[in-house]
Amino acid sequence: MAIAPGVLLTQVALAKPADQPVSSANRWGMLIDTNKCAKGCDACVRGCETENGWGTNETRSAENQTAQWIRKVELRDKSTGFAQSLPLMCQHCEHPPCVDVCPTGASFKRADGIVLVDKHICIGCRYCMMACPYKARSFIHEDLQDQLPVAPRGKGTVESCTLCVHRVDKDGDNALPACAEACNSEGHEAFVFGDLNNPDSRISQELAKHGGTQIRADLGLNVGIRYRGI
């Protein structure tokens, strides 16, 4: 299906049926405990690759143009030398800079806090990539094949973590993004996903009890991804 010059999607998956709009009553987010994040483990990355079909292979992406919906980074304290590993993805900001700079409205935030890209109107200007302080977005340079219905991708468009929106829309409070599921399967259980607006949700209770840190909190973006141990 051609949606714009140079942009092809094999299938289009709606994030939400038109008769079931999302609500601002929810705000989906994630808490990641870096103390449980094993150095050298990339289960979360592999889980996301498999679920959304962006991993490097002969049909999905050239090796030097691999997408980065989620990636492992190392933080090092220069004064002590202490280093720790953590996963980094779109932070699903309440006030997303990517949305502010997008000239077409392709970058948008849903009422429930999930930040997405509408591939039908993305013109590939990459302003959003420059605006993102987390380097969480990727640009698709090459023709793609073997796409998955839950995550249509198109040459000439930008993409990033969707918090596995297809799972959220299907399972709601019981949803578990692929990264969290993969981490659990390895026995680390570093991820907690849930509704930040629900005081009874596990993520809200964990944050109320132990707190959580925002990366670049000084920017005032009120991100949906919080970390413990940094």
Report on this structure.
With 230 residues, this protein is α+β, with helices and mostly antiparallel strands. It has a single domain, classed as Alpha-Beta Plaits, CATH 3.30.70. The chain is built from six helices and eleven strands. The strands form five sheets. The chain has a three-stranded mixed sheet. It has a two-stranded antiparallel sheet with strand order 1-2. Strand 4 and strand 5 form a beta hairpin. The radius of gyration is 17 Å and the shape is globular. About 3% of the residues have low confidence.
In short:
19% of the residues lie in helices and 19% in strands.
* Succession of helices and strands: EEEHEEHEEHEEHHEHE
CATH fold naming = Alpha-Beta Plaits
Total number of distinct structural domains: 1
Ends apart, CA distance between termini: 44 Å
Number of helices: 6
